[in-house]
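Aggregate trends can hide what the representation actually does to any particular protein. This step matters because it turns folding into a mapping between discrete strings. For completeness, the protein is quoted in full, as a sequence line and a line of structure tokens:
=====
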Amino acid sequence: MNAEIGIIGGTGVYDPELLDNVEKIKIDTPYGNPSDTIVVGTLGKRKIAFLNRHGPGHKIPPHLINYRANIHALKELGVTRILSATAVGSLLEEYKPGDLVVLDQFIDRTHGRSSTFYEKDRVCHISVADPFCEELRNTIIKEAKKLNYSIHEKGTQVCVNGPRFSTRAESLMFRRWGAHTINMTVVPECVLAREKEICYASIAMVTDYDCWKEHNVSIEEIINTMKQNENKVKNLLIKTIESIPLVREYGCKDALSSALI
């Protein structure tokens, strides 16, 4: 089966039951195995591929996710757009737990992750000046407003390596840098999607205030917030997919045209 739109589910968003006519597909890639088998099916008139980022039972930590295999496998299925769902910590008082954020920038604090498909015959200097697809971002924002969700139209995401949470000094530093949210998975996922000329956007749910707000982040807090708000993400995914234009107009589809040496 082919698919046109990919959904990569993060913490708390593991629901391929959104899809009809499903088939599970295992894909081998030159980069190893993806995080999980890919569930391909339909949502309305659109063909969707769903991938669980952390694998069955959330067993793969952020720094060990095979991001290249995940993106390559979705590309092999014909995916041209990816909607990512992820949990984030807030670095601002006004970005409250339960709010949604449509990310527009990132600051990369990861290390040791393979962030390019071009390591042998050619060099690729991909532009990520604006790392998230504007067409997808605008569609998400439009549909969130129709649903009357509390949504922030911009968000600079600090991506840390994990799996540990930040120290209080780090969290305060990220706030001084002007970042809005923090998590562990947006990089290199969005960069690799750009190298495959796939449009990529992220629906981020705020689950906590990180540790700058004089409290310690806990997994229990994150999971509870996700459970209370997961239907918002699912509803927004459905409405966004229904509204995505059939023809791509933005530059993601031509990202390699001036990137390869």
User: Anything to note?
Assistant: Residues 5-258 form a domain with the Rossmann fold fold (CATH 3.40.50.1580).
